[in-house]
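Input.
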Amino acid sequence: MKLGLLCAPVCIAASLAMLAPLAFAQDDAERAKLNGSWQAKEQGATQAVWTIQPQGQNMRVTSAEGDHTVAEFVCQLAKECEAKDAGKKVKVMFYFNGAKLVMMETKGDEIVKRLFGPGDAADVMELEMIPMSPAGKSETTHFTRVQAVATSKP
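Output.
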């Protein structure tokens, strides 16, 4: 009887240890879907484009409007780094929460949380922007993958 009571926690822990890599593998596959360039679906005067590129332990994220690069961040995951956004100094940190890439940006007293996540379709990304301080209304924008243009040599 005592052996059965001792076996239960060990068996549960062993089962979780065997299943954990499957969960992480699934997250990795979902995270990989975020890689590339994404253009806002909503039509506006200037098209917003986000580019997400993992570089080893670093994450490179670029924000552009039309042909103008607004911000470029290259940061080690889960470590705060300094950068410039629209010419102003900011502190940024990237980390993953499941399949979503989380970007925390601090500009003075302003803190904004951005969640980049896979959308319902294969070539759709959702970007949720949440003003943390001061608190505000969150906004979600849908993006479509920018297809690479093949160039041909004459």
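The chain has one domain: 33-145.
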